[in-house]
Design goal:
By secondary structure, the protein is α+β, with helices and mostly antiparallel strands. The protein is built from 16 helices and 33 strands.
Length: 777
C-alpha cells in the first residue's frame, strides 16, 4: 500500500488532483464523475514578456556599499546595496515591477460522460507505473456500467494519454479544450472530429498550442457548438494531448507535428502501457525500500487523518518518499527545464512567487534526492538550466559587480537572464556556488570524467573566478565577502528591508569553501590548472572562520547579532552541515555540536513553519545522526504541510513541490550517507523502522549500495563500484567483506573505518562479524 495513492471521492479542488507528467508536459487529474477536468501544463509556457531583459552597469556603486557595511552601518548599507544592485521588484513593486515571468497554465481538457448516478467510486495513482485510474459504477441506458478512465503521461511518446471505457458497454461523451479567461492572451480554437486545437498568443510574449487527438472504437461522432466533439455509442475513446510553444524559437504547431502524425499508428492500449512501463522502470525503478509494518488498506486521506490523530503508520513516510521520487520523474524525465516551485503543475495566471526558480534553497532542494536515489538522469534538466544561464551570468557579474566569472540571481525564470528582480532580497552572490554543488555531485556520484572535464569543471572554474575578484582582504589578511547576506534573514538594527546586507554571513563563507574546494579537487583529478589549485586553496585558508555564539550555537553572521525572527524558516547557515559537507562529526566536532544547538534553537522558536523548511530540518537531523528526530520532522511535514494527495504546502494553502522532494531526500539520508566519499550505513535509522531493506542507493565515489537490517542492526550490505578504487566504510561494528564468490577480501582498519580495494562492476558483500553490537550515530 506504500506504492499507491487512492481515494473514494473526486478532487474538490485543483490541489487535491493527482499529478502526472513526462517532464515536458504535465497534467493534474481531478477525477470528477461526469464532467472531468484535466488541467494541462507545458514546461516552457512562461509568459515571455521579459525574456530579453538585461542589467544596467552598476559596478561603480560597489565601493560605496562596501564602505558602509565594513564600518558597521548595516541599515544604510542595506538600503544602498538594494538601490544599487536590485532596483526592481520586491518591496518596490509598483514603482519598478519585478520582471520575472510567471509560469502559465496551458489550458484544460474537459470531457463529459453521458451517464446517471455514480457509485463505488475509486481514483488512484499507482507509483509503480505512473498510471492514474478513475473507476465507478455509472447508470447508462438503464444499465449499470463499470466506467474506467486511465490517464498516463507516456514517457517514450512524451504525450498525455487518456483512455475511457465502460466495462465492454457503449457510452456517450463530449470532449473539448478550454482555458481560464486571460485578458493578456488571445485564444483561437479549431475543431475536427479527430482533432481539437487551442492556440494562444500572449500579448508581447510567446505563443502556444494545445492539441487533443481523438480515436474511438465503435459508435459515431459529430461536432457541437462551443468547439466540442460529441461521441455516441463508443466502446473505447483514446485522447492524446500534446502542446507546443514558441519559447525556443520555433512555431508551437511544429513542436506538435511529429506526434500528431504518429497518432494514427499508436498501438493498442496494452502495448502502450507496456512500452511506457519499460521506460518508466528504467527511469524510476532502480531503488526500492521495504519496511515490515502494518498494512493499512485505507484511502490515503484516511491514513493521513489517522496519523494526525496519533496512529503510528511507519509506512506513510515511505509512501511520501515514493511519491517524491515519482514527482521528480514526472517533472524531469523528458524535461529541458528543471522543476520549478510547483514542479510543472500550475492552474493560475498569477501563481504564488510566479512559480519561479528560487535559487537560494528551493530549486536545489528539488534535486537533492536525484543523485543518491538512483535518479541521476533527472539532474540533467537542472544542469542544462545552469548552462543556459552561464553566458548572461558572465555579463551580469561584470555589469553588476565588475567581477570575472558568473553571477546568478536569487530568483528567476527559464530565459537565462541573470538579473536581480527582488528588491530587498536580491543582493546575494551565493546562488552560482550552490548550483555548482550539483555539478560536482553529478560527477562525484557518477564518476564520468568527460562530464567533469567538459561541463562541471568549466562551471566550477567560472564560479571560483567570481570569488577571486569579489573577495576583499581586510587588515588582518582575512578574505571578506561583502556585500553578503544570509538568505532570507535579518538582524536587529539593520533597517526595514526584509534581508540584512552585511559582511561575510556564515552561509556565504560556507558556499565559498564548497565551490573552491570542489574546483581545486576537480582540477587535481583532471591534472590541470596547478596555479589555480594553489590559488583556490590559499583562498580557502584565508576565509573567515565559522564562529560559535554565547549559547553554543553556530553564528549566522560575522557577529552575534540579535535576530528579528529567531524561528526564521531558512536555516541558511547550516548549509555546511547539509547539503554541504564542511561540518562533520569527525572532522569538526565543535561546529557539529554548534549546528545541533542551532537547529534546536530554531525549532524551539517555532521554526520549520513551511513544508520545505521542515524537510530541510529533517535532512539536517539525519546528517546529525539523530534518526528519531529526522523521522519526527518527516511526520510533521506529512501532518502539517500536506494536502490529502500528499502535495507539499506552504502556509496557508499554497502548493510547493520542494517539500515533497526534500522529504524524499531526508529518507535517503537516514539510510546512507557518503560525505567525503566515505560510506556510512544506516547513520540515522529511526526506531520506527527497526527492520527493512533497501536496494539501489547511490553513494559519492561511484557506488551502488543495498542494505538489510533487523532489530536496528545492519545484517547485510552490498556494494558495487563504477570504477576500480578503494572503498572506505565508516565502521560502527566489525565487518567482514567478501566478493561475489564468497572469497574474503583483505581490509585495512584505520580510524574506525575499513578500507578495501574494489573492482568495477564486481559485487561485494559486507556482513557483521558479531551479533552483539548496535549501530551508533
Amino acid at each position: 500500500m506504500n506504492n499507491q495513492l487512492w481515494y473514494k471521492t473526486p478532487a474538490r479542488e485543483w490541489m487535491e488532483g493527482l499529478p502526472i507528467g513526462t517532464g515536458r508536459l504535465a497534467a493534474m487529474v481531478m477525477g470528477t464523475y461526469k464532467r472531468e477536468r484535466v488541467a494541462l501544463n507545458h514546461e516552457w509556457l512562461w509568459k515571455g514578456v521579459n525574456r530579453f531583459r538585461d542589467n544596467a552597469v552598476r559596478s561603480a556603486s560597489l565601493a560605496h556599499v562596501r564602505e558602509l557595511l565594513m564600518k558597521g552601518d548595516y541599515a544604510t548599507g542595506t538600503l544602498a546595496g538594494n538601490e544599487a544592485f536590485a532596483p526592481t521588484g520586491g518591496t518596490k513593486q509598483g514603482v519598478n515591477p519585478c520582471r520575472v515571468d510567471p509560469y502559465q497554465p496551458a489550458g484544460d481538457l474537459f470531457f463529459e460522460l453521458g451517464h446517471g448516478f455514480a457509485s463505488d467510486y475509486r481514483r488512484r495513482l499507482d507509483l509503480r507505473n505512473g498510471l492514474v485510474t478513475v473507476e465507478y459504477q455509472g447508470e447508462y441506458a438503464n444499465n449499470l456500467l463499470k466506467f474506467r478512465r486511465e490517464y498516463l503521461a507516456h514517457l517514450t511518446r512524451d504525450i498525455i494519454l487518456i483512455r475511457i471505457t465502460a466495462g465492454g458497454g457503449n457510452f456517450n461523451t463530449a470532449v473539448w479544450l478550454d482555458r481560464i479567461h486571460d485578458p493578456d492572451c488571445d485564444l483561437e480554437y479549431t475543431t475536427a472530429l479527430d482533432l481539437l486545437t487551442l492556440h494562444g498568443k500572449i500579448k508581447h510574449g510567446i505563443d502556444f498550442r494545445v492539441e487533443a487527438q481523438i480515436r474511438q472504437e465503435g459508435g459515431e461522432s459529430g461536432l457541437l457548438q462551443n468547439n466540442r466533439v460529441f461521441i455516441k455509442d463508443a466502446r473505447e475513446v483514446l485522447i492524446a494531448v500534446n502542446a507546443g510553444t514558441s519559447a525556443q524559437g520555433g512555431m508551437p504547431e511544429d513542436e506538435c507535428l511529429e506526434k500528431r502524425r504518429a497518432f494514427s499508428a499508436l498501438p493498442p492500449w496494452p502495448e502502450l502501457l507496456q512500452e511506457h512501463l519499460k521506460e518508466y522502470q528504467r527511469h524510476h525503478g532502480g531503488l526500492a525500500i521495504s519496511v515490515p509494518a502494518t498494512e493499512y488498506d485505507e484511502p490515503t486521506d484516511e491514513r493521513l487523518r489517522q496519523m494526525r490523530a496519533g496512529r503510528n503508520d511507519p509506512g506513510l513516510p515511505l509512501l511520501y518518499f515514493n511519491f517524491g521520487r515519482y514527482l521528480l520523474c514526472a517533472s524531469s524525465a523528458t524535461a529541458r527545464l528543471p522543476a520549478n516551485l510547483q514542479g510543472k503543475w500550475n492552474e493560475d495566471l498569477n501563481p504564488p512567487w510566479d512559480a519561479d526558480y528560487h535559487q537560494d534553497i528551493n530549486l536545489q532542494m528539488n534535486y537533492w534526492v536525484a543523485e543518491p536515489a538512483g535518479m541521476a538522469k533527472y539532474a540533467e534538466a537542472l544542469l542544462q538550466h545552469i548552462e543556459r544561464f552561464t553566458p548572461h551570468a558572465k555579463k551580469a557579474a561584470a555589469d553588476l559587480y565588475g567581477c570575472k566569472g558568473v553571477w546568478f540571481p536569487i530568483l528567476t525564470d527559464p530565459w537565462g537572464r541573470s538579473t536581480p528582480e527582488a528588491y530587498g532580497w536580491a543582493v546575494w552572490i551565493g546562488a552560482a556556488a550552490w548550483l555548482a554543488q550539483h555539478m560536482w555531485w553529478h560527477y562525484e556520484f557518477g564518476r564520468d570524467l568527460n562530464f567533469l572535464r567538459d561541463r562541471a569543471y568549466p562551471f566550477l572554474k567560472e564560479t571560483a573566478a567570481f570569488y577571486e575578484s569579489y573577495l576583499i582582504e581586510d587588515n588582518d589578511g582575512v578574505l571578506q565577502i561583502v556585500p553578503s547576506q544570509s538568505p532570507e534573514n535579518r538582524f536587529e538594527g539593520s533597517g526595514d528591508l526584509p534581508v540584512t546586507l552585511c559582511v561575510s554571513a556564515t552561509m556565504d563563507i560556507e558556499l565559498a569553501w564548497d565551490v573552491l574546494t570542489h574546483a581545486a579537487k576537480a582540477a587535481e583529478i583532471l591534472g590541470i590548472d596547478a596555479d589555480k589549485r594553489m590559488l583556490w586553496r590559499n583562498m580557502i585558508s584565508k576565509l573567515p572562520p565559522l564562529k560559535i555564539g554565547s549559547e553554543g550555537q553556530l553564528l549566522e553572521w560575522n557577529r552575534e547579532f540579535k535576530e528579528v525572527e529567531p524561528g526564521h524558516r531558512h536555516i541558511s547557515h547550516l548549509f555546511a552541515l547539509y547539503p554541504g559537507e564542511q561540518i562533520t562529526r569527525a572532522e569538526t566536532p565543535e561546529l557539529f555540536q554548534a549546528a545541533a544547538t542551532t537547529l534546536e534553537r530554531r525549532i524551539k522558536a517555532s521554526g520549520g513553519y513551511a513544508g520545505w523548511s521542515r524537510a530541510w530540518i529533517s535532512c539536517c537531523f539525519a546528517r546529525l545522526g539523530n534518526g528519531d528526530e529526522a523521522y519526527r520532522h518527516l511526520q510533521r511535514l506529512l501532518a502539517d504541510f500536506t494536502t490529502d494527495t500528499l502535495l507539499d504546502i506552504y502556509p496557508p494553502h499554497i502548493f510547493q513541490i520542494d517539500g515533497n522532494l526534500g522529504g524524499a531526500a531526508a529518507v535517503v539520508e537516514m539510510l546512507l550517507q557518503s560525505c567525503h566519499e566515505e560510506l556510512h550505513f544506516l547513520p540515522a535509522l529511526p526506531s520506527a523502522w527497526p527492520a527493512g531493506k533497501v536496494a539501489g542507493l547511490r553513494a559519492r565515489g561511484g557506488f551502488t549500495v543495498g542494505l538489510e537490517w533487523n532489530n536496528g542492526r545492519l545484517t547485510r550490505a552490498e556494494i558495487t563500484a563504477i570504477e576500480n578504487r578503494k572503498c572506505v566504510v565508516r565502521e560502527t561494528a566489525p565487518l567482514a567483506v567478501t566478493d561475489a564468490s564468497g572469497t574474503r577480501v583483505p581490509v585495512k582498519n584505520a580510524n574506525n573505518r575499513i578500507i578495501f580495494d574494489v573492482l568495477a562492476g564486481e559485487r561485494y558483500v559486507l556482513l557483521p562479524l558479531k551479533e552483539n553490537w548496535r549501530l551508533e550515530p
